[in-house]
Design a protein that fits this description.
4 helices; 0% strand; mainly alpha
């Protein structure tokens, strides 16, 4: 994305923004079953590395990660 520096930051509750970012990063490399098998420690690191993600590690919880996985699956399905 050429305009990343002009985009607003997003945080742990912005599940759709996170899911779209993960789908853009990994594309079809991760299908539904593979997304649900991702370790939460890996998922948290991937989210923290997304451009414009402004959340902090200490604000993350299991509920956020579960919701991110589900939303990522819906994003993946929408693109199939």
């Amino acid at each position: 994305m050429a305009n990343e520096k002009f985009e607003l930051p997003f945080y742990w509750n912005d599940y759709e923004d996170i899911a779209m970012g993960l789908y853009e990063k990994f594309g079809d490399e991760f299908g539904e079953s593979k997304i649900y098998r991702i370790r939460f420690t890996d998922l948290m690191e991937w989210v923290l590395s997304l451009p414009n993600f402004g959340g902090k590690r200490e604000d993350c919880n299991e509920g956020h990660l579960e919701q991110i996985q589900s939303t990522w699956v819906y994003e993946w399905r929408d693109n199939q």
